[in-house]
Structures are given as structure tokens and as C-alpha cells.
Amino acid sequence: MSGKDPKKGKMKDVKKETGLGLSYKKDENFGEWYSEVVVSGEMIEYYDISGCYILRPWSMSVWEILHGFFDAEIKKMKIKNSYFPLFVSPVVLQKEKDHIEGFPPEVAWVTKSGDSDLEVPIAIRPTSETVMYPYFSKWIRGHRDLPLRLNQWCNVVQWEFSNPTPFIRSREFLRQGGHTAFGTKEESDAEVLEILELYRRIYEELLAVPVSKGKTSELEKFAGGLYTTTVEAFIPNTGRGIQGATSHCLGQNFARIFEINFENEKGEMAMIWQNSWGFTTRTVRAVGRDNGAKTDIPMANLAEQVKDVLATIQQNLFDVAKQKRDACVKIVRTLDEFTVALGQKKLVLAPWCDEEDVEKDVKARTKGEMGAAKTLCSPFDQPELPEGTLCFASGKPAKKWTYWSHSY
């Protein structure tokens, strides 16, 4: 025997083949490859508290670019920045929990100050509704106080117990969160889609990641909201969907909970219509270099040609990603076809009756090692649905086409 470690030899060959100094190949072990990329690429450093990560300068520079683009765009819409405290009193948190079915349980609590127990524990914000809306009710009195359109750049803590993954699932992350109030539903609806289009632009125009814009099912919408719109991405190597960013119409439910009323132009008391929308550092995914091709650029045209080259690379990255995503889309019409497509790690597009019980049944039937399959969204760009088309899962008349997959 030569005494050489065959595993080390294999890793050496892979590193040579990838040209990036990596030990794993994306097509063979995506999870290990991803973890290695974000660490070797100096984007993330692991921290000594599980689920928490250090964002290194490369990832922060990406976040700053997204921040700069989005902040400028919402200011054009006359949305103003504000900041609300990190801490939430248990009274208002309980108020939301009492009224909202499916309220997120991943709340972290401060229970001590030094060695002394706090008389009343204080929550660390998992979201911002309970922090902000008591003050909306104070500031909004009449129609002249509307619309109220605020955004904040902050961090939130969601103490999840699922397997943590850098950027994709972490316990603390940076976020942008918009919270707005209007006098009419029409104004609210218009803003939801305007913001969603900005999120599409972030993914497709800045990050070169193709996404599908659509509306979630009732089961997957934001707890307490009227409806949720989303941009959904898909990772071909894992066969999993990943929610990019969401824009929610909250309707009047939170206005009812927090008593946010106003006097309209007719002198009548009415409840406001609210939206919330946000994206986070979970938006930051790592992209490989383009094609390694070298080009000679004359100094006289350096600035102009470098700009053109970067635009070409950006477009190429998006086109390749979109081709890979589109190649994964599988149209199915029966539950058997659906199950086979899931096993092949496909992004499934299926005719659906849009009934919650049917969605829950599909989740139960597909529960396995990768987790249950779920709806991602019903795309706004709907394929033709011929009359008489049946739901793939129930056999009832189908109402829409919907994307399904395993999800992070």
C-alpha cells in the first residue's frame, strides 16, 4: 500500500476540477457545497450560537447594494423610514396571539437583568406588527393622516428549531419591513403589487435569480392577513422551492385588533386597510463566476467595455439560471404523476381546486425525508385552463394552476 489517503486524493481532484478550491461539487452534494461556498467565499463565518452567523464584508456589500436600490425606489413612492424598538411587551404580543391563528411561536425572551429575574419578561421582536400598530392607532385620527407609509431597516429574531442554514434559515437576520395604512382597499391592493414588482427586480435584475410572482394559498398566507403575494425561487439541485420575498395585504384584521380607526371624508368612522412587506438577508444565495473567458480590452475603451462585459455576465447568469429552473418545471394532472415528479426533484405545476382540505391532504400524503410538499404560489401569469380540467389531487373542477414542491 502506498499509504496515501484515497479520500484526500479524491478531494484534491475535485478541487482541481472546480478551480475554486472546493472539496464538494454542487451536482453531487449541494448542501456541503453550499456551506463550503459561503465560508470559503468569505461571506459567512459560523458563530458559537447555533443558527447565528457573522456576515462578512462580501455579504454585507451585497446587502448594501440591495438596500440602496430598494430604499431609493420606495422613497420615490413617498414611503418614509423609521425605527421601532427591538423589545416587545408581552401584553401586546399576547394580544396578537389571542386573535391570530397560526401566530409564530419562535419568540425569544429576555428574562434576566444581571443576576436578577425581570418582574415581567420582555420579548425580542419576531415581527414588527405588535411593535408598530399600537402607535398607528395613536397617530391616525382622520383621512388627512392617510396614507401612513413607513419602512424600517432592522434585525429580527425568530428562534427556529429547524436545521439552521446560512442565509436560508437563521435565528437572527437583517430585514427591511414596510408597514402601511390606507383609507381604501383599492389603494392597498395597488401597493401590494407595486412592491412585489420591486422584489422581482431585486432577484432577477440585481441577483440574476429567476422567480415566479404569484399569490399563496390560504394555508400558506401570512397569519392574520387577507392575502399574501410572493416571489418564489427554485433550487434545481435540491428540488426545493424557496420563498424570496412577500408582500401582504393585511386587510382590516389588525386594524380591528389594535383599534386603528379614522374619520373618513364623509365624517364617518371607518377602519384602515393595511399592508406589510419585506425581504431579508435570507435574500443573499451565492453565484458562481460566469464562464472564465478572458477578453482583451483596449485602455481607451476600458470604462465603457467593462460596463458592457458586466451587463453581459449578469444577463448570462440569469439566462442560465432560468434555463435550469424552467427545465425542472413538470406539468402534472394526476396524483401519481405528482408523486413521481416530486421524487425527481421537479418544480410541479398542477391544476388545483384551491381547497384547503385538499392541500392538507397532499401535505400528509407526501410527508417524507424531505418534508411535505407544499404550495409555493399560484402564478399571476396563468397558463390556459381548459373547461373541464380536473384537480390533480381531488378530481374536482380545477380553479387555477399552482406551483408545488418541497420547500426550505
From TrEMBL:
An example GO biological process term is:
prolyl-tRNA aminoacylation
Q: GO terms for CC?
A: aminoacyl-tRNA synthetase multienzyme complex; cytoplasm
EC category: ligase
- What Enzyme Commission number(s) appear in the record? 6.1.1.15
Instruction: Please give the catalytic activity noted in the UniProt record.
Output: tRNA(Pro) + L-proline + ATP = L-prolyl-tRNA(Pro) + AMP + diphosphate
Keyword annotations from UniProtKB, A to Z: Aminoacyl-tRNA synthetase, ATP-binding, Ligase, Nucleotide-binding, Protein biosynthesis
- One Gene Ontology term of the molecular function aspect: ATP binding
Q: Where is the Aminoacyl-transfer RNA synthetases class-II family profile domain?
A: 85-290
Q: What name appears for this protein in its UniProt entry?
A: proline--tRNA ligase
